[in-house]
Fold this protein.
Amino acid sequence: MTKNPSTATAGRARGEAGIVLPIALIMLVIISFAGLLSARNSASYEQFSNNMRTTQVARQSAEAALRHCERVAMDQTENEGVNFVADAAKIVSTKLTDPELDSAAWKTKANWVDGAANLITVSLEHSNDVKDAAKIKNDPSCIIQPLRDDQYLITARGLSNDAQLDNNGQLTAGSEVWLQSILKQGVPVKSSSGGNA
């Protein structure tokens, strides 16, 4: 007896119909996981980029404050503070024998609160140190303290735009960057190419 070809094909189609649905569901689950993983990686990269940007803003801000206070200290040594009278008056009067001493002004939290006697707040509105000063929302600050042999210890603090401080001047959110330099008498102010060092 010969089988009808259409009956054989119909029987085979009924057996294959049960396999297509599970395979399609498995493929759908795999594609969904791949999309979810891709979205998660994208969000992580965006967060990383944002953190890098805020840290860079804080660094530029701290560098601008450090350069400003170095100019104030140089002016104090060379011209007795005539060019930066208000800032020169905020230089710490106590000389340090060692920048690492606990008596260093920069180590005291109260000295970093707005309005502290020795805190120099640097306005970046007209600063050439930061290319786009309008984008920096939190003004940086610095403290200048004399060391022995006509040297100055300069400590600067820069904050990111999203930085938030509590009443004690402690960072609660955002980024902060601390920079420090020791300015010695006789260090050239001009580089060999004629620009500022």
Notes: The beta strands are 120-121, 141-147, 151-159, 164-165, 171-173, 176-183. The mean pLDDT is 80.
